[in-house]
Amino acid sequence: MEILSAHDVSFTYPESSTTALKKINVNIQKGDFVVLIGASGSGKSTLLRLIKQDIAPHGKKHGSFCFQGKQLEEHAPLTMAKEIGMVFQDPENQIAMDNVMEELLFGLENLGYSTVEMRKKVAEMVHFFGINHLLNQKVSELSGGQKQLINLASVLLLEPTVLLLDEPTAQLDPIAAKEFLYTLQRLNDEFGITIVIVEHRLEDLFAIANRVIMLEKGRILYDTAPRKIIYEL
Ligand code: ADP
Ligand code: ADP
User: Fold this and answer.
1) What value of ipTM does the predicted structure carry?
2) What sections of the sequence does the record tag as coiled-coil (predicted)?
3) Measured from the CA of 47, which atom of ligand 1 is nearest?
């Protein structure tokens, strides 16, 4: 089932007159695990941020994105904020609260859950992540890997169907990075969460992902299965 699609999407940043995306077409199916690759400046971040509707609003956009068959702009903003989660490179910029427990409750507080429901959701999430021991810690006391896991957990508590990640392991050591990517694999396998990730750790990811989309200068160069790329290399 198609969950997210781009139809002839082009985007130009007015500040630099850079056309970052040029007539992009892509169909993402529910349960896909997509790795987005390409040289620096090829348009990867721009594509994710357009889907998340988190980009220079004065930028010049052509074409459209659809989520579950309806244009992004036709969905209620709160619905899209919940349905499409995004994790950035630096958890420090995304985490809002000082304590882990507060951080995990933070996103849920505006969604009308009772305290009992919120605590139950948080308990289930920390159990899934195996991070019960971090609940009473201060965020500032955590390692980079732990911060990024907390960040991911707080995004997931909103129960997104699609998760976008822009170089989430760039600041993590290799072991923490592997643990983070393994967690994504479990989310994809066990809950069918659709994942689109910009990542450089291709060795780890090619074993997990079912699609690789390569951008070059704002265009899709290929969209294929990882094993085909490995075969061609
Ligand atoms: P990638 O994520 O693949 O490195 P980006 O999407 O960040 O690529 O950038 C694509 C192009 O758009 C680049 O040429 C970059 O310089 C330009 N660009 C990105 N962000 C901005 C911005 N905020 N203002 C102006 N130009 C930008
Ligand atoms: P990425 O890790 O996605 O490649 P960059 O290092 O290209 O990120 O960009 C970092 C930040 O600078 C982003 O917020 C991006 O929007 C902004 N940026 C990138 N290129 C330009 C540009 N040509 N003009 C203005 N801002 C830019």
Assistant:
1) 0.83
2) none
3) 6
